[in-house]
Amino acid sequence: MVVSEGMGVPSWPSDQELDVVRKKVAEMSKKDTCQVNVVACPYRICPLGAHIDHQGGVVTAMTINYGILLGFVPSENGEVLLQSGQFEGVLKFNSEELQKPIENRENINWESYARGAIYVLQHEGYDLKKGIIGFISGVEGLDSSGLSSSAAVGIAYLLALECANNIVVPPLNNIYLDKLIENKYLGLENGILDPSAILLSKYGYLTFMDCKTIKPSYMRFSELNKGAEMNFKILLAFSGIKHNLPKKSGYNIRVSECKEAARQLLLVEGFEDLDPILCNVDLITYEAHKGKLKENLAKRAEHYFSETKRVAKGRDAWAHGNLEDFGQLISASGQSSIDKYECGSKEMIELYKILLEAPGVYGARFSGAGFRGCCLAIVAVDSADVAADYVRKKYELAWPDLVAQIPADKRVLICDPGTSARVILGEL
Predict the structure, then answer these.
(1) What is the pLDDT of residues 239-293, one digit of tens each?
(2) Is 381 within 8 Å of 230 (Cβ atoms)?
């Protein structure tokens, strides 16, 4: 079992979940179940730092005890043979085939991430002599949910291919490789928040990722208050709205607006040679010239600088175990995402508001871009069940047709913090 130091005892995956994946791969490959390796890639949440990773900001993240499992064995002839627990069909090709970026985003499907992983490994000069025979499975109903399932899938394929070919790649390098899958292969302008959370998280800690320097730091919960227990649960409430983010242009437009705001602010100070991202604009420059920006650009910049402040305050609240202050900052982040970053469908905004009303909830916001998927909340342990029931009933009254599309046991999940992605090795 390959793990990171100091990340606690993983509560996921269970032995039963592992057995299901191993048996499927053994059936596909004619190997024994004990020979099957399993990549466990958890889903992630981002309590603070919304929409600032692509601008070089500092973001926070932790994983949860749900995620993607990819069982696999190496194939000696370079064959890649894959099946999915959520999607029909069999994917078969050779790892030495030259992969090309997707030109039409409408063609993106579940197999794109496997091809994307091979594409970036080829592009970066890694020698892939072996392919994989594998079975990948997520949590039913949680794909396209705003929990970074796409990044988890991409990382799972990267770790499996690297393991099969005895390639050792440090986590920071895999963050870069997964970003290449999204940016260069799929054509989405994602930052590094998602892969950073999945690859670097530690149980009991909040990860702070500086997206400019690509350097993580960690803060243990209540570290400055005698290290109290994590007396909270994570509530995930699902909207029933699903679409594949790369097929929509709204995300990329907002990224471009942030860059244009940065370009204009840098230009007035004579720093036009700097990379036009908002982390390169100092606060004094922003305050002096923000009135010169057009309304949409001004809103994007205001969200960036206010969110940066919330991240800093959130570090202190987390370190002191102050869930009330931490939750208020999360809620303020959610409101800024709506008002200043101008994201969020009407259904997601209503779900966010319902969570804020739920008993015992400290704070809530969108998980992801806010156009589909779920909202997250931090809730008191002894109120989690009551809060989940409240949210489930209130949202069903508001959007019964959408709720009907969500599996009954996945409409609101009560989760615990998780740990980082890892490979659980089978026997040689």
Answers:
(1) 988 765 444 557 789 999 999 999 999 999 999 899 999 999 999 999 999 999 9
(2) no
**What is the Cα 288 distance to its own chain's centre?**
35
Strand pairing partners for 75?
131
Note whether 201 and 222 are within 8 A (CB).
no
Of 186, 232, 218, whose CA–CA distance to 363 is shortest?
Answer: 232
Closest by alpha carbon to 267, among 294, 296, 292? 292
Q: How many whole angstroms separate alpha carbon 322 and alpha carbon 324?
A: 6
Question: Locate tokens 């696999």: which residue?
Answer: 72
> SS3 for 225?
coil
Q: How far apart are CA 78 and CA 371, in angstroms?
A: 39
Number of alpha helices (DSSP H) and beta strands (DSSP E) in the chain: 12, 12
Q: CB under 8 Å to 368, separation ≥6 — which residues?
A: 145, 146, 147, 148, 245, 374
Sign of CA dihedral 363, 368, 369, 374: negative
- Would you state the structure tokens that stand for residue 280, as one six-digit string? 């390169």
CB atoms within 10 A of CB 219: 17
Per-residue pLDDT, 103: 76
Q: Is the pLDDT of residue 330 over 90?
A: yes
| pLDDT value of position 97 | 84
Indicate the pairing of strand 79-84 with strand 58-75: unpaired
Catalytic residue selected from 194, 325, 401, 416 = 194
Q: Give the angle 49-356-196 at the CA atoms, nearest 5°.
A: 25
CB 122, CB 128: distance < 8 Å? yes
Catalytic, 194? Answer yes
Q: Cβ atoms within 10 A of the Cβ of 345, count? A: 16
The full DSSP string for 289-314 is HGGGS-HHHHHHHHHHHHHHHHHHHH
How confident is the model over 164-200, as pLDDT tens digits? 999 999 999 999 999 999 999 888 777 788 898 999 9
